[in-house]
Amino acid sequence: MRVVVTGSRGKVGRATVRAFVDAGHDVVGVDLVRPVFDAGEVVPGRYVMADLTDAGSAFSVVAGADAVVHVAAIPQPTGHPPHVVFQTNLMSTFNLVEAAVRFGVKRFVNVSSESIVGNFFPERDFLPDYVPVDEQHPLYPQDPYALSKSFGEQLMDAAVRRSDLRAISIRPSTVHNEDNYESNLGPKVRDASEVSANFGSYIDVYDLADALVLAAESDLPGHEVFYIAAADNAGGHDFAEILRRYYGEGIELRPLERPDASGITTEKARRLLGWTPTRSWRDYLDSDGRSLQGRSSTSPGTPSSGR
């Protein structure tokens, strides 16, 4: 397929472009960064600089595509004024979906977020109704980022109603790669009291990229939504014990697939997409949360045995 990957110069975008090229697809990467022709770029495929909040730019990059994988976004509500976060994320998605519908694109993969539930950046305290969170959990977004992702999924619903477009929204947990495992997850590995809004859930960027390829190649009809997370939680802690120690009986605990389970279940993605997470924080960090880089024969992005 000819696949347009937006946000192609970001952490997720780079891994996604590589995964699509490795899968044999013709990739066009799109981002705001100026193209550099002699810098020894490691990102394969072709590249186009474009501001996707501009409708004309969005239409120009989508023309001729078989699939659009929309990764580009301001990734959190902090650091930018709320209206900038909301407008940037929502209008880029709207413009791309509108272009995809008008050009008859067959598949749109929309990168949403786990924060759509409302557990990240709330202005009022929030806890999920139950854990592990699944696709049936109600959505309670508060902040402009989560709201933009919620409206983005509604754009997918509307698009499949009015066209032959097939859409998949992927809700990844917090994304990590070899560059930030230690800084982001190291504290949680060392200390179970370092609780997080998603109960230690995370996803390796290369596992997420694999899920995006499967989503683009899928022939599932309509608009499906999938959570994507690692099988375990950061630190490999006993999930039930940690939940009760720090949250008491305030959150319903549903059945776990393993003692060190993630706070997000990916059963639906495994069942309908054929996706299985193969990487863990253990591939990058030791039991003290320190980086294994330079001390392990396992290269970044290589699946670990048994996971």
UniProtKB/TrEMBL annotation:
Q: Where is the signal peptide?
A: none
Q: Where is the NAD-dependent epimerase/dehydratase domain?
A: 3-218
Locate the compositionally biased regions of type Low complexity: 294-307
Specify one Pfam family: Epimerase
Please indicate which superkingdom the organism of origin belongs to. Answer: Bacteria
Region ranges (Disordered): 285-307
The species this protein belongs to is Frondihabitans australicus
Record-linked InterPro entries: Epimerase_deHydtase (IPR001509), Lipid_A_modif_metabolic_enz (IPR050177), NAD(P)-bd_dom_sf (IPR036291)
* Identification of the protein by name: Nucleoside-diphosphate-sugar epimerase
User: Gene3D superfamilies this protein is in?
Assistant: NAD(P)-binding Rossmann-like Domain (3.40.50.720)
